TrEMBL record:
Superkingdom of source: Bacteria
Protein name: Uncharacterized protein
UniProt organism field: Sporomusa termitida
Amino acid sequence: MLTRLLSQAFDQYVFTRVDQILNLAGTQDAGYSKTAAEVSAALDKLLVLARALKAQQPEMTGLVMDFEAWAALESGQAAEIAYRQGLRDSSQVRREFMTCLQQYD
């Protein structure tokens, strides 16, 4: 029970922290902001095209919207995976750093 509760709390922490990091990146990282703007512009163009072709391809608008949702989910999951790996890596880097320091004491 406690393990599950701690796991849920940690999952919520990771989700919240990744969201915070991505929000900061959107305002403080020029490269990320540029890419996000380009993705948004491309999606807008796709939606305009889908609406223009609605008579010939009625499923296209839904497909574009589905693609946007799945791409956003994939991006969020990738960020979460990278964050979790970073946490694991930081522990390993710290151990290696401490071992290195102990060699010079």
